[in-house]
Amino acid sequence: MRAVILAAGEGRRLRSHFQRPKPLVNLLGLSLIERNILSLRECGIKEFVIITGCYDGEIQEHLGNGEKLGVIIKYLHNADWQLGNGLSAYTFHKEYRQGEKFILMMADHIFELDLFKSFIAGAEEIKEDELLLAADRRLEEVHDLDECTKIKAWENTAIKLGKGLEDFNAVDCGLFIGTGELLEALSRSIAGGAYALTDSVNLMAESGKVKLHFIKNNWVDVDDYESYKHCEKLLLKSLVPPKDGIISRLINRKVSLRITKLLAPTGITPNQITFLSFLTTVASAVAFAMASPLLGGLLAQFASMLDGVDGEIARLKFLKSKFGELFDSILDRYGDFLIVTGMAYSWYAGTGQIAALLVGAAALAGMPMSMLFKEKFRNVFGQPFISEVHDGVMRYFAANRDVRLFIIMLGGIFNILPAALTFLAVIAHLQTFYRLYSVRRLS
Questions:
Q1: Tens of pLDDT along 19-41?
Q2: CB within 8 A of 213, min separation 6: which ones?
Q3: What is the number of structural domains in the chain?
């Protein structure tokens, strides 16, 4: 399918805060329209038709032909954009290919990626003379409900739409899968002097041809500064993966998300952040080896927080890469090795006890096991290993990297390196053996 993005309006309420066309307003490192293009690209959409109006030149200059985003962009200009978004949508008839289904959306509506994926999968649900509309019936969760277009729905069919509806049970998310029938309805609506997209949708709804796809993920119509800040919060919240360990969820993400928010508008890359996190672990190891456990512990915890930022930036700005994932994993293992070696050296240099070398070796052997087990689990069983689901009672004693570095921080702060290293060695191997025992039921 191709995607048609309406970017013709003036966006007056948001422009007063940003002094640029609304589709080009930067939201955590990407303009609104770029975020939608890249989200759809993740769903396999590579061809885009952008309908411009008020800011035709600025938008074309910013996006170009789409090459820098890895897509193909064509532009259609609606000189009468002031009349309404229905006229902008109808402009697509100049490029329409007979029999095609197409995505139609607004440049300033932001959706979680999983929402796009499930909605596009619903294209098979509609016939060639129907329209599929993304609708939200979780009314208590809808931001700025008063400004939304309401829907009176019966089962999965729209009966009537309108901003002023008093009898409604869902709202319009501004995301459609259209067919030639929508263009015909737009033509009839415009001929009758009704220029809003909702007018033509209501024409189709009268014939029962507007099907609803009820969404389960977050979305925001970024219409003013309040909704802009709300969208920013939702995007940052969406960066937290379900596989996060307990320390990541309760401590690290509270810091890493703030760092991500600061770094997102810059040109720093995830791999650069990965390397910075590694350098921090090197500094931590040196601090431990130089008998500065407090500094070593604090640096280890800061490295743990930075370790989440690279992934957050990659997901937020669509910069994920296979090399980046591998690069992060390898440097994490080197960083862990160096920190534990620095701790063991400090213990041995201060006491001369051979136990320091033995416990350090045991900790070094056990620390990579959590990552190794998860990777092998994903390869063997075809699903991610999620501690909250698969670890049972051991999830409270997890030996994930965030927990290990937290223990190292405590060992440094309280200057109890022998206890910290011993605990690391025991919990890492205990978790590995418990996981081996547990997965026997799945094999």
A1: 899 999 999 999 999 999 999 99
A2: 118, 119, 122, 125, 132, 133, 134, 135, 156
A3: 2
